Amino acid sequence: IRRALGKFTSRVQDQLQNYLRELLHVRGVDTHTKGLFNFLVSREERLEFMRTVGDNAQYGEFVDRLFAFCWSSVERSLAGVRNELHKGMLPAIDAAVNSLLHSTSHLANLDGYSQFRDVIINARTNVQSAIETVSNWFQRPLDFARDPFDFDIALDVARKQITNCYVQTSISPVISVNVQNKIAGRFLDGMVEILFILLQNIIRHSGY
Question: pTM for the whole thing?
Answer without folding.
Answer: 0.69
